[in-house]
């Protein structure tokens, strides 16, 4: 492999579309700044609900293939060239929402052996040697089995990599500060009559909302708002975008957040409110 740039960022997500919703502005910004951005997505999301009626015929493997094409288009919008499916496309099945019989499917990601799946992620870490890892909190942000399992696998992979002498300097969880979310939702409720959406989501519908004190890092992706919206729009089976708002299959409007937030959970200097995931790292260090 050709020599990688000094700064290398790894993001681990559950389904195609999670990366654009959570980190689209961050990914676009770092890619534009010459950082090597690697996305690992754990499943193809083939149990996702399809929004557009003209695509409603897509289910199972056909939906998975379609969502891989959507992911490819979204990465084009964000300028990210290194994106992979954990273990190869289709290795781990979508587990469906928590509590469904789908969770018991032996091929689904929820049933995967964490160490085995983490070993596959370690292969990527050996190749890319990221200094920064971004993933979900232990609840997966909102309790979806694939998101919880993504947290477990990413965390285990970081441990295994450290044990073989390849520690990842900083580990972050995706977050939305409560005050930021409240402000954005207040604006949304005012604008709602001027949007194509009938109802607004609530704070409970947003993954990863926490009290502001827990948020350590704020990435201003305002300049990449259009790229983020375009990437989200590329996931047309899952997301309806009407900037600066969007809705998932439940039809409830949410703000597209272009300043993205993180909680540093491992490594770093402990400085309050960093504005760079690579804060504290200098070339040659
Ligand atoms: Zn997801």
From TrEMBL:
MF (Gene Ontology): N-acetylglucosaminylinositol deacetylase activity; zinc ion binding
Annotated source species: Streptomyces cadmiisoli
Protein name per UniProt: 1D-myo-inositol 2-acetamido-2-deoxy-alpha-D-glucopyranoside deacetylase
GO BP: any one term: mycothiol biosynthetic process
NCBIfam families tied to this protein: mycothiol_MshB (TIGR03445)
Residues bound to Zn(2+): 15, 18, 147
EC number assigned by the record: 3.5.1.103
Family: Belongs to the MshB deacetylase family.
Keyword Hydrolase annotated: yes
Functional summary from the UniProt entry: Catalyzes the deacetylation of 1D-myo-inositol 2-acetamido-2-deoxy-alpha-D-glucopyranoside (GlcNAc-Ins) in the mycothiol biosynthesis pathway.
Pfam families in the cross-refs: PIG-L
UniProt keyword Hydrolase, yes or no: yes
